[in-house]
Amino acid sequence: MAKVVLTLGDDVSTDAIYPGRFMATVLPSETPQFCFADLTEFNRALNGKQIAKGSVIVAGNNFGCGSSREQAASTLKGHELVIVAKAFARIFLQNSANLGLRTVICPTLEAKEGDELELSAAEVQNKTSGKRFPIVPLPKARQDVIDAGGLIAYARKRLVERARRA
Amino acid sequence: MGMTVAQKILARAAGLPSVKVGEVVEPRVDLAMSHENAALVMNQFLEIYKETGLAPRVWDPARIAIILDHRVPAESAKTATNQKRIRGFVKEQGIAKFHDVRADEGGICHQILPEMGYVHPGYVVVGTDSHTTSHGALGALAFGIGATEMAAVWALGSVLNVEVPDTIKVVVKGKLDAQVLPKDVILHLIGRISAEGANFKVLELHGPTIREMSVAGRLTLCNMSVEAGATSGIVPADEETARYLREEAHLAETLEPVVPDADAAYCQTVEIDAAALAPQIACPHTVDNVKPVTEVAGVHVDQIVIGSCTNGRLDDLEVAARTLRGKRVARGTRMLIFPASWRIYRQALQKGYLADLIDAGAVIMNPGCGCCLGVHQGALGDKEVALSTTNRNFKGRMGNPNAEVYLCSPAVAAASALTGAITDPRG
Ligand code: SF4
Question: What is the ipTM of this complex?
Fold first, then answer.
């Protein structure tokens, strides 16, 4: 079970997730501190470890729109958050799969802060309200990458295979 | 069934006779672009090679472009150190298309690539920047990817797992008013189809209005196609593309354009009557919150910005210079100009545009991204309002979440500089 710790509307941009002024910080090990930096209270709770790993952010359409900055995915991954949104912007969704950030597409979800969710492969169950909502599968182009444990591992495997053939 | 431009380019790059929408392919890359975020790409690239026993070598140093533009000259020790590491990597790997902080070669990546002739029609271009969509203006399929994905491209030379996108056909007809510019066309389109209207799709731009538009104008359109969520914007190459590549990018070769089949299938068609368009404004805090200028005229503006990869080209500076020549920027309003590249800076200097702008009170900044992403120069104060020709107005985008950013064309920006408030350039 996972608790909803934040609910957001449509069009949450990567500027909101990881403001541009922190972009000189690039390493996945260093980006988590600036997660939603302008939502000061939420950021403080994250950095103060008051939010459990596996907690859920619920959002509307087009989550992660805007800049391609990968820090937006690595900062959320650093706190092991799970994003359940009605829909995701393309580059953000790809970055998430590449870095192993869990994203769930659930167009009809009704949930509010504090609700407890059960996430399975096919649906989201809101334990608090008792309602169930179907999940839309991730684009199939990303599944191999996710199955390999992220793009670094996937690309490494491909590289080694190629070197062996050469 | 025929193919769209995106399908044709992907089929060729994947070595297939044809591709269908939704099919997963692995296109080889013709050009791979990064900017300061090459520092992260390098890190991930070395990760891929870890414990493989292989020496880290990029697949083709001639096909990688790295342009330092986001914070030039460096604003902090951290950035300077990242830039230094990038220079080291460029040297070690022999990366040819490197543009450093120099007035003889520098500028914003999305201006450098076209003006250097690095992008050809039919190319697959990827960039660690969402506005890589810009390069569709030359008839390429150009899209943004993340840093780890770019690291895989550097290692393998192809983009792993691309799902062939659907295409929306946009047809623009009618003559634009003299004060209505390509920026107004794309703002209008984004307002109409919304910030996610083209998510996972390509916008293919057609119609007489587009045919008459210069490559500079087409770059503005394709640049902002990502603000409707598009994977890429594409203007199929034509005579204007060939003229640009020959005369402005100094390419000697003649290049084959890629045009869609007559029976290509589109998921949607959007028609725009250019003759009926008024200047458009994207209001805070989303790019699709678009209104005709008449609805927001009179809003006081503290800072006006002309520049960026959207509207920092010679055409844009000319509009500004023409409007401000012999006049003054209103007191109480600051005006900042960021030419998109040093080549444009020099041309604007020779044509006298920069002198006109300086005399009017505008501050000419060095070419680069400047205040567009809010990390470097020209930050806004609390409760201040900016009117900008850049492409994003998200909360905090210009460095201050307590400020507001309106987006507009250079004609609106220049007219508003004279009054200090949002002004309709048609008078
Ligand atoms: S000018 Fe702005 S939008 Fe363009 S590349 Fe630079 S930061 Fe990005």
Answer: 0.95
Write out pLDDT tens, residues A79-102.
999 999 999 999 999 999 999 999
The closest CB to that of B399, out of A21, A24, A98, belongs to A21
Interface test with B, best of A68, A74, A94, A151 (most B CBs within 10 A): A68
Q: What is the pLDDT of residues B9-48, one digit of tens each?
A: 999 999 999 999 999 999 999 999 999 999 999 999 999 9
Q: Do B162 and A140 touch (CB under 8 A)?
A: no
Put simply, the answer to whether B145 touches A94 (Cβ < 8 Å) is yes
pTM of the model: 0.96
**Which atom from ligand 1 is nearest to the alpha carbon of B338?**
1
> Which band of pLDDT confidence, cut at 50, 70 and 90, is reported for residue A164?
very high
Task: Give the A:B interface size as CB pairs under 8 Å.
Answer: 154
Domains and CATH numbers, chain A: 2-165 (3.20.19.10)
Alpha-carbon gap, residue B64 to B145, rounded angstroms: 14
Q: What CATH number should be reported for the domain whose range is B5-272?
A: 3.30.499.10
Separation of CA B63 and ligand 1 centre (Å): 22
Task: Quickly name the fold that domain B280-419 has.
Answer: Aconitase; domain 3 (3.30.499)
Contact list in A for residue B152 (CB cut-off 8 A) is: 151, 154-155, 158
